[in-house]
Amino acid sequence: MLTPAEDTQPARAGDGALYASPPAAAQRSSSGDDTPAGKVLHYLQTAREHLPLGDAQRAESLRRARAGDEAEAERLVRAYLELAALLALAFAPASVDPLDAIQEANVVLDQLVHDPDVSDPVRALPPAVLAAVTGAATR
What is d(CA 9, CA 101) in angstroms, rounded to the nearest whole number? Predict the structure, then answer.
């Protein structure tokens, strides 16, 4: 599972995944609930620590990220991890594991941030996540 936790190691930029797999401890909820629902809840609580950006901030962040500032790209992705996760949970068919759906959505978000043809990754996120998580059901 991809995680917004600060203790993950960055993967190579532009490879479709901004975050490498977290250590096992980062996959446990703070309450120690290792059930799938507990892990999802913990993920959402952690993602919520990163606040979404306003329109002007988002545009500036995207401009800087696309100019090669990987720290800014990471900041932009982190700001929308919760949105990506909530979209994944809303759109994923029952046959798709919720954590797998969240991971698919995170990959999509990272790809949108790095895609120079996408003018606003946040506005492009809902249909892209829908396509990704429904496609995951057929794999």
Answer: 21
> What's the chain's average pLDDT?
81
Q: What is the pTM of this model?
A: 0.75
Beta bridge partners of 113: none
- Helix pair angle (55-66, 98-114), 10° resolution: 70
Q: Identify the pLDDT of residue 5.
A: 44
- Please list the residues that pair with 10 across neighbouring strands: 19
Answer whether residue 13 shows pLDDT above 60: no
Distances (CA, A) of 83 to 71, 73, 94, 129, 138: 20, 16, 19, 10, 23
- Helix/strand/coil (H/E/C) assignment for every residue in 25-75: HHHCCCCCCCCHHHHHHHHHHHHCCCCCCCHHHHHHHHHHHHCCCHHHHHH
Looking at residue 138, its pLDDT comes to 56
Give every CB contact of residue 71 below 8 A, 6+ residues apart in sequence.
none
